[in-house]
Amino acid sequence: MIDNGCARNACPAKTVRERSNTPHSHLYTGVVPMEATNLQPLSLSLDQASGELRVRFNPAAGMPPPDRTGIRQELSSKGWGSFYFDDKAVIEFIGACRTAAEPLEMTIGARRDGEFALKVSEDMLTAWLTLVPACGGEAVTQSELSDALRAEGIVYGIRHDEIKAAFAAGQCERLAIACGEPVVEGEPTRFETLYDRAEDPPPAEDLDRIKYTDFCHILLVQTGDALMRRIPPVPGKNGTNIKGHPLLPQPTPNIAFLNDLKGAALDQKDPNLLIATSGGQPALAGNGVTVNPVIEVLDVDLGTGSIEFDGTLRVGGDVKAGLRIKVTGDVVVNGTVEAAEIVAGGNVAVRNGIVGHLDSRSGAQALPDTTTRIFCEGVVQALFMENAHIEAGKSIVIERSARQCELLAREEIVVGKEGRNGHIVGGSAQATNRIATGTLGTTTGIKTQLQVGLDPYLEKQIAEKDAEFKRRCDELDRVIKLMTFLKQNPKKGEGGIAEKAEATRRQLLAMIDTLTAELKSLRARLELAEQAQVEAAVAVCYGVEVRIAQQVWQAREDGGRTVIQLKGGKMAVSR
C-alpha cells in the first residue's frame, strides 16, 4: 500500500495537463550522486533528468539486508520523503538483497508533478475533473484548470465551490465541476377513460338486503355519465449545455377529441370532459368514446345481472327468472321471458312465450310478486303468456293464449291473430277500448274477468290527484290559522313573516284551483263505455265475467261467437 497518497489511478480519457519531471532549481543542483564509498551497505540516488529514485545495496559491507522502514527513513533524511514510493519494487528489492552476493541496484520511486484530467459527457451536460496530487514535484493550480475549461469552451454551470474544495484537498476522482441544465420534455396530450372505473361498494349494512341478480355485469353508461377526460399537453422547458448552447425540447402537439362521436359530446361546462348523450354500451374510439344505444346480449342471466340504462335492449336468447330489466327504449327478446321484471319506455316484443309463477297457496287469487311483471309505455307482444302481470301504455298483442294473467292496456288487448283462434283463460284483462280473442274462458268454468270502457290508469291518476288535493288543502288550512294568529299578534308578523304567509296562501290557492280543473278533466274521461266492447270470435264459456263501466254481465252457460257492449246505457250481448 502506498502511504504517501501518490499512487496513480487510471487517467481519464483526456489528460489536460501533465508536467515534466525537471527538478526545481531551488531544491536540486546537478545530479545527486551515489554514495562515494562502495563499502556503504545502503545508498540512494536521484536522477535529476528522469526524476527516478534509485537504491543500491552492497552485501560486501557485511551488513544485514535493509528493510522497508530503513529505506523510508533514509529517503526522509535526504529530503525525498514526499516522492512517489513504489511498494512493490521495494519489496522485490528487499527480497533480492537477502540472497545477493554482488551489489544490487533498483528503481523504487520517482519525483512526480501533479496532474489533472477533464472528461466531458456526450450530451455536453457534465464535465468531470480528476485531480492527481504532486509527489515531490509541482502541484496543479486552479488557473491552469481555468485555462483548460476556456480552451474546451466550457462556460456554463461551472461549480466553483466544488473546484475550490478539490484543490484544497489536493485530489479528487471524477468530480462534476460543470453541470448544464437538461431539457425538460413536455407531457403530451393524454386521454383518460372514466366509464370503466369501479363503483363504490354498497354500505356493509346493506349487503344482506342486496341480491346478486341486482348487479349489472355489463359495462353500461347512462346519459350524462363521464366517459373520457382530456388532459392538455404540458410544454417542455429549454435547457443549456455546459458550453452555453440552448437545448430545445420536443414539440408537444395539442390533440383534441375526435369529432362526431356517436352518443357522446363535450360537457358544456368543461371542454376537456366527454359525457354520454345517450345510455348504452361505451366503446373506445381513439381519442374519444362512442355509446351504442342498442345493447345486444345472448341471455339476461347471472352472467349479465340485471340491466338498467337509457336505450334499447336486444336479447338473443332468454330472460331468466329473478332478473330485472329497465330501459328507456325497447326490449326485444328472441327467446322466452321467465319470472323476471321488465320496465321499458318503448315496446316489449317476445318471440316465444312469457312464463311466470302461479301462487301455489290455497285460495290465492292474485299473482305472486315473484312472477313475471312487465311495464311498458308502448305495445307488449308475445307468442303466449302464462301467470304474468302485464301493463302496456298502448296495447297487448298475444298470438296464441293468455292463461291466468293480469293484463292492463290503455287501448286494447288482442289475443289470437286478428282476434281469432286466441284464448283467454282465467285471470283478468282490462282495456279502455277493446278486448278481442277467439275463446273466452274454458268449459271447466275457470273464473275469467274482463273490463272495458274504463281507462285502467285513470283511476290511479285520479287517486293520486285526490291525495295531492287533500294535502294542499291541509297546508292551506295551517297557513290560514297562522295568518289568524299573526293578525291577533302583530309583533309576531314583523320581519316579513306576515307577507310570506300571505304569499304562501295565494300560491296554495292557485295550486288547488289547478288540481280542481285537472280532476274534473280526468273524471270526464273516466267513462268511455259507449265505444268499448268485448269480442269472442269463437266462444264464451261459463265463468266469464264482463264489466263495461258500471254494468256487469256473467256467462251462465257456454255459448258461441259473442260481442258484448253497451247500448243506451245497458249491456247488449250479440251472438
Number of domains: 5
Distance between the termini: 129 Å
Average residue-wise pLDDT: 84
Give the fraction of residues assigned to helices. 10-25%
Strand content: 25-35%
Number of helices: 6
Rg over CA atoms, rounded to whole Å, is: 52 Å
Low-confidence stretches: 1-38, 198-202, 204-210
Summing up helix and strand content along with how strands pair, one would put the structural category as alpha/beta
Coiled coil: 498-532
Keywords: Coiled coil
Domain Flagellar Assembly Protein A N-terminal region: 117-285
Organism: Noviherbaspirillum cavernae
Compact description:
The chain folds into 5 domains: 22-110, no CATH class; 115-179, no CATH class; 190-201 and 209-292, no CATH class; 294-457, no CATH class; 459-524. The chain is built from 6 helices and 37 strands. Helix 5 (458-488) packs antiparallel against helix 6 (497-524).
Care to describe what's here?
- By secondary structure, the protein is of the alpha/beta class.
- The protein has 5 domains: 89 residues, no CATH class; 65 residues, no CATH class; 96 residues, no CATH class; 164 residues, no CATH class; 66 residues.
- Helices cover 18% and strands 33% of the residues.
- The protein is built from 6 helices and 37 strands.
- The chain has a 6-stranded parallel beta barrel with strand order 25-27-29-31-30-28. The chain has a 4-stranded antiparallel β-sheet with strand order 1-6-7-8, with helices on one face. A 4-stranded antiparallel β-sheet has the order 2-3-5-4.
- Helix 5 runs antiparallel to helix 6.
- The longest helix is centred in the C-terminal third of the chain and has 31 residues.
- The N terminus is likely disordered.
- This is DUF342 domain-containing protein.
- It holds the Pfam family FapA.
- Keywords: Coiled coil.
